[in-house]
Prior knowledge:
The chain is mostly helical. It folds into 2 domains: 4-175, Orthogonal Bundle (Vanadium-containing Chloroperoxidase, domain 2); 190-441, Vanadium-containing Chloroperoxidase, domain 2. It is 52% helix and 1% strand. The chain has 14 helices and 2 strands. It has a two-stranded antiparallel sheet with strand order 1-2. Helix 2 (37-54) packs antiparallel against helix 9 (283-298) and helix 9 packs antiparallel against helix 10. The longest helix is centred in the last third of the chain and has 29 residues, at 303-331. The radius of gyration is 22 Å and the shape is elongated. The model is unreliable at 1-31 (pLDDT under 50).
Amino acid sequence: MKLGRRQVTLGLMSLPFASPRQALAQTAAAQSGLLPPEAVLSQWYRLVLELVRHTATYSPPVASRAFAYLGITAYEVAASSPATGLRSLAGQLHGLTPPPACDPALSYAMPAMLHGAMAAAVMAFFGNTGPTGQRAMAAMDRILGEQVAKDTDPATLARSRDQGAAVAQHMLDWSLGDGGATVVNMGFPYDYPPPQSAADWVPTSLIAVQQTPLLPDWGRNRPFAMPAGQPACGLTLTIPYSAEPESAFYQQAAEVVAIKAALTDEQKLIARFWSDDPMLSPTPPGHWISIAMAILDRDAADLATWADVLARLGITIADAFIACWQTKYDVNLLRPVTYIRQVMGETKWEPLLNTPPFPEFPSGHSSQSGAAAAVLTAIWGEGFAFDDATHADDGLPVRHFPSFAAAAEEAALSRLYGGIHFREGVEAGLAQGRCVGAYTVALQTRV
């Protein structure tokens, strides 16, 4: 695991993966014994973004699941204090029962509770990361543990950390029954039925492990906020497969070829900016988490806002991947590169981006971005402008967006520019995401 430019030396007071300004502000607070709980949450999440980037099994669906459970864990710890004004999500999310409650006769320290919860949850979800990641988690536990202990009596400190760990264990126990807890062979099944028709997905890579598609059963996982069973946000193709040159499907493929041939530098940049490939980025879910965290930092948000945003954003992205993956494998549509080479005769044609190893319809980037935009718009409003510096450390320029919807639409179009999706998959994915997001928006998070 190579942390590279994002790694900040883990010294006595430095916090990993924070910007210099954040690190200085939080160090000053820690030295005076005033480390705020939102700083604890922020620092653990910064580490998680790096762990996602460097943990081999963390494909986008798997990452979305971790972000959901981590967000709910932090949220429920924050909701245990009446001062936050947060309402528990128990009974609102499928299968979630009330977590262990604080003893009303005793005192607790929120920073220590959050630290105990996040340390337990992060170490559980990333137990299979590499040696450097293991050391980073241990260092985070030690450094933040020292900071939350300042000006806190030992009994309250131990009680608080144990309480946070108990909430985390409750969430981990709940997570084991959702269908996504075990990922075998990097998510690629050992066997998969061969294609039954010309429209069916076929492998697009020569890599042996990718001769079967990624996580074909992920769509059967238990959702969080959207209806269980058959997702209420399922999709059907409106442009049927056809190899006839006059057909609408053929014209979709021809559009992909034409776009690739005339890509502008800006469109190439957009494709790269939103690519968010596993092992090279925090993945598409982490990209939206990064956007939200930058806004929370910028606006000096309080704990209730941090917890609410991270929980609902994690929930909706995870549900979007469940809905999207069920549709992908129900429809099982081939990728543009396959059609263009086999039907159109463009045997040497290559997309700008690497084609992911699973069916085309709909676009996962579109589904999760539509869902994320729906939730963030509900929280911060229409026309909320922001800068996205997610990939600044990778040398890509900061991008400005006038709204979350505009960012979601660009993320969706990036897959068309990249040559890995047809237009219908892009547009249908956005619609699916907005549908999924509505269920998360409906959650009651405030007392």
